[in-house]
Amino acid sequence: MLGAMSSATLIYEDANAEVHRLVVGPVDNNVYVLRCRRSGDAVLIDAANEHERLLELCTELGVRQVVETHGHWDHIQAVPALREAGYEVAVTQADADLLPAYDLTLDDDVALRCGELELITLWTPGHTPGSICFALAGTPLLFTGDTLFPGGPGNTFGSAEAFTEILGSIETRIFNVYDDATVVLPGHGDATTVGAERPELANWAARGW
């Protein structure tokens, strides 16, 4: 049983994997822990905030590594405390300078091992230059950070170039690759599916945000 302080919710499980979600910080960031049920190893996605709760969660669930979807302030507040506790933190090279410190860099289209599980990396620039998503092989799960939400892409802060870039990332790396049943687990808010969002791409382009 998870401790009262961490209060994570089990949102997915199958014979091999389980995913826990914890909402933290002033802008309700989703922190996910992916755990291999066979080995007990786990990885934490986005050390966003409330490091005491995250450290308890890491201990409870056997976290071995932290991976960041991008380097914006609200996704990295707990990074120093987790690194100090001995957890390696990985981020793309393009976003590495946004972190106070890190240990490893993430490349595009590689398989990250978590026990017997594989997280496939998808570089999806736009929200930040180094934004990256993670697909859990053999499942319908796609962790999208702030690249894709229910109702549209992440904020590009008025940049027409970045907006074009994020739409291209969503279309080519997500919509053109994953089927409608793929579950999108974003950096904030509720989950959605590729099938729910795919028909809206043209509308997002037309509205311009």
What keyword list fits this structure?
single chain; 209 residues; alpha/beta; Metallo-beta-lactamase, Chain A; 7-stranded mixed β-sheet; 6-stranded mixed β-sheet; globular
Protein model, in words:
The chain has 209 residues and is of the alpha/beta class. The protein has one domain (9-207): Ribonuclease Z/Hydroxyacylglutathione hydrolase-like (Metallo-beta-lactamase, Chain A, 4-Layer Sandwich), CATH 3.60.15.10. The protein has helices at residues 51-61, 79-84, 160-175, 194-197, 201-207; strands at residues 9-13, 17-24, 29-36, 42-45, 63-67, 88-92, 104-106, 111-114, 117-123, 132-136, 141-145, 148-149, 152-153, 183-186, 192-193. Strands 1-2-3-4-5-6-7 form a seven-stranded mixed sheet. A six-stranded mixed sheet has the order 8-9-10-11-14-15. A hairpin with a 2-residue loop joins strand 8 and strand 9 (117-123). It is globular. The model has no long low-confidence stretch (mean pLDDT 96).
Can you describe this structure in just a few lines?
Helix content is 21%, strand content 33%. It is of the alpha/beta class and 209 residues long.
> Helical residue percent?
10-25%
Which secondary-structure class do the elements indicate?
Answer: alpha/beta
The CATH class designation is: Alpha Beta
Profile the largest sheet.
7 strands, mixed
CATH topology type: Metallo-beta-lactamase, Chain A
Topology:
Elements: E1 9-13, E2 17-24, E3 29-36, E4 42-45, H1 51-61, E5 63-67, H2 79-84, E6 88-92, E7 104-106, E8 111-114, E9 117-123, E10 132-136, E11 141-145, E12 148-149, E13 152-153, H3 160-175, E14 183-186, E15 192-193, H4 194-197, H5 201-207
Parallel strand pairs: 4-5, 5-6, 6-7, 11-14
Antiparallel strand pairs: 1-2, 2-3, 3-4, 8-9, 9-10, 10-11, 12-13, 14-15
